[in-house]
């Protein structure tokens, strides 16, 4: 029987981790905060992939590993499969989650009621800060994906794109 953790606990942990690294530990260095959050995600992904593949036969190729990530691994973490997988057959994969759980309660639409900054009448400053805050929450899942794939024998780089919340795309570039 597997052990599970409440979704709200994981959500709160992620929010607090990002907040701590961005606002306290590395308040003046967001790139260091991002690297540290991604490193924590890497460790989590590495350990989870170890747990979820313990009783499976070894994977034979990259596509098989990516399919495992999209179906089984994603289902274990988010209780749903990836909505769309695209590849260029040259080492780049795009995983699309149309309702990424960790962004579902987030909005980058600045409203005068909720934003604490009113200095910029065009809203560009507020919009940029909100988008940056949302993107900081994506370093952890990028790290999870990279850690899992690295543990399964696929060294890669992972980036994320949020164009329409809560949809999210993860771009995996396999290193050769």
Portion of residues in beta strands equals 5-15%
Class inferred from helices and paired strands: alpha+beta
Radius of gyration over alpha carbons?
17 Å
- SSE run: HHHEEHHEE
The pLDDT mean sits at 82
Largest sheet: 4 strands, antiparallel
What general form does the structure show?
A: globular
Distance from N terminus to C terminus (CA atoms, Å) equals: 38 Å
Low confidence ranges:
110-126
How many strands? 4
Strand line-up in the sheet with most strands:
1-2-4-3
Written description of the protein model:
- This protein is α+β, with helices and mostly antiparallel strands.
- It contains five helices and four strands, in the order αααββααββ.
- The chain has a four-stranded antiparallel sheet with strand order 1-2-4-3, covered by helices on one side.
- β3 and β4 form a beta hairpin.
- α1 runs antiparallel to α2 and α2 crosses α5.
- About 10% of the residues have low confidence.
Spell out the blueprint of helices and strands.
Blueprint: H1 7-25, H2 30-52, H3 62-78, E1 84-87, E2 92-97, H4 124-136, H5 139-151, E3 156-161, E4 168-174
Antiparallel strand pairs: 1-2, 2-4, 3-4
Short structural description:
Helices cover 48% and strands 13% of the residues. With 176 residues, it is of the alpha+beta class.
Features:
176 residues, alpha+beta, 4-stranded antiparallel β-sheet, globular
């Amino acid at each position: 029987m597997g052990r599970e953790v409440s979704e709200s606990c994981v959500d709160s942990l992620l929010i607090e981790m990002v907040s701590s690294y961005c606002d306290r530990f590395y308040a003046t260095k967001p790139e260091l905060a991002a690297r540290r959050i991604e490193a924590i995600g890497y460790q989590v992904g590495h350990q989870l992939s170890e747990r979820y593949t313990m009783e499976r036969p070894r994977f034979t190729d990259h596509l098989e590993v990516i399919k495992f990530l999209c179906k089984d691994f994603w289902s274990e973490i988010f209780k749903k499969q990836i909505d769309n997988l695209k590849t260029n057959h040259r080492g780049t994969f795009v995983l699309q989650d149309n309702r990424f759980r960790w962004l579902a309660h987030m909005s980058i639409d600045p409203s005068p009621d909720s934003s604490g900054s009113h200095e910029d009448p065009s809203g560009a400053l507020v919009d940029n800060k909100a988008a940056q805050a949302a993107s900081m929450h994506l370093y952890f899942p990028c790290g999870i994906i990279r850690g899992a794939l690295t543990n399964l024998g696929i060294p890669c780089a992972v980036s994320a794109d949020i164009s329409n919340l809560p949809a999210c795309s993860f771009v995996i570039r396999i290193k050769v």
